[in-house]
Amino acid sequence: MRLHRIIVFASTVCATVFVTPLTRAQNAEDILQRTRAMYVSLRSYADTGVVLNQYGSSSEDRHTFTMYFNRNPRRFVLDFRKQGGDQYVIWGDPDAFHTWWKTTGQQSDYPNPNNVSAISLSGQNTGATATKIPTLLYGKSALAAALLNIADPVLDGTEELGGRRCYRLMGRVSDVYSATGKEVNVHKISVWIDAESLLIRKVLEEWKALPGQRSRTTTTFVPQANPSLEDSRLKFVPPEQK
After folding, report:
1. Is 187 buried (19+), middle (13-18) or exposed (0-12) by CB count in 10 A?
2. pTM, to two decimals
3. Which of 76, 157, 180, 190 is most deeply packed, by most CB within 10 A?
4. 21-234, what's its fold?
5. For 89-145, what is each residue's pLDDT tens digit?
6. CA distance 148 to 159
7. What residues form DSSP beta bridges with 87?
8. Are 199 and 193 in contact (CB under 8 A)?
9. What is the dihedral of CA 63, 49, 112, 100, to 10 degrees?
10. In terms of Cα–Cα distance, which of 106, 125, 110, 109 is closest to 241?
């Protein structure tokens, strides 16, 4: 499976401008395109973040992660810490990508050129963080910027997050079977994109649920574009099994 009525009045010499849904959709596509291009251009990147899963009438799980990326030479580390103590790490070097899961103690290696599976197959073990920002950083690969492959995107205004003005985009996403084109896992998505830096700061995904129930995941990011990173942050050595 491949993971793939607002009216604004402005007057200038009695002129009136209407912002239509079509205009909002065009603006959304432009923002998405510029955001994809920005991530592909980054020399380095870092973030910390939280994944909040809310389900049932009141249940929720909170997980955390950190990510460090350097384009040349290639270095990548995504360290996902699950509520309850489990840990899953993806890291990359010039020769391969690797994964390690604390629960099993197992390391898996993905040598070049068939290395993208380390990221594309790690969604479940990383609260889907592996299939978000990494697919933008490696947007020229088979990962194809999966996070921003949004159907029917609409610019739903702006909102301040952490003192930063952000575009709020809404749309629909799904997974598609490449052999049949059948869509599965269809759900709504909202993405908050920093209006100045074009860095993604928040992603909200919502699935249909029974009345009185919730099924949503909120992922928040504290991102840095082109930071200077110490070598120690760009490497991971799995602990020895006891």
Report:
1. middle
2. 0.87
3. 76
4. outer membrane lipoprotein receptor (LolB), chain A (2.50.20)
5. 999 999 999 999 999 999 999 999 999 999 999 999 999 999 999 999 999 888 877
6. 19
7. 81
8. yes
9. -30
10. 106
80-93 residue pLDDT tens: 999 999 999 999 99
Spatial CB neighbours of 58, under 8 Å, sequence gap ≥ 6: none
Which tens digit of pLDDT belongs to each residue from 194-241?
999 999 999 999 999 999 999 999 999 999 999 999 999 999 999 987
CA dist 176 → 1, 71, 135, 149, 206 (Å): 6, 29, 16, 12, 18
Length reported for the chain: 242
How far is the CA of 47 from the CAs of 24, 134, 148, in angstroms? Answer: 29, 11, 18
Instruction: Characterise 149 by phi-psi region: left (phi > 0), alpha (psi -120 to 50), beta (else).
Output: beta
SS3 string, 154-212, reads EEEEEEEECCEEEEEEEEEEEEECCCCCCEEEEEEEEEEEECCCCCEEEEEEECCCCCC
The CA R_g of the chain, rounded to the nearest whole Å, is 19
Q: First and final CA of the chain: distance in angstroms? A: 36
Contacts of 36 (CB under 8 A, 6+ apart): 136, 139, 145, 148
